[in-house]
């Protein structure tokens, strides 16, 4: 009985976390050709890994009302800097 409850809870948690992270998705150049651009965003002074900067971009894109974003520039010096194009 406990195994069924645990499996159900894990399944629900997976669906919830996927739904939260799927709100804004990163696309490539080919995918972006069929989308409507709506501006650009940038983030800087981010420490950590490339995944951290992608997370920052996704949060900013979501706040701007975008459904997708495409990274157009990503550089690393002392900190990460990235620019992305937003799409509806």
UniProtKB/TrEMBL annotation:
Gene3D superfamilies listed in its UniProt record: Flavin-binding protein dodecin
Signal peptide positions (record): 1-22
Pfam families with a match to the protein in the record: YdgH_BhsA-like
NCBIfam families: stress_YhcN
Keyword list, A-Z: Signal
Keyword Signal: yes
Domain YdgH/BhsA/McbA-like: 35-88
Protein name per the record: Peroxide/acid stress response protein YhcN
């Amino acid at each position: 009985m406990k195994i069924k409850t645990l499996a159900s809870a894990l399944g629900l948690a997976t669906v919830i976390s996927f739904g939260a992270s799927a709100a804004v998705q990163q696309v490539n150049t080919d995918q972006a050709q069929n989308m409507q651009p709506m501006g650009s965003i940038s983030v800087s002074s981010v420490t950590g890994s490339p995944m951290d900067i992608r997370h920052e971009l996704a949060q900013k894109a979501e706040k701007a009302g975008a459904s997708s974003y495409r990274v157009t520039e990503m550089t690393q010096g002392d900190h990460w800097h990235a620019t992305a194009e937003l799409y509806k």
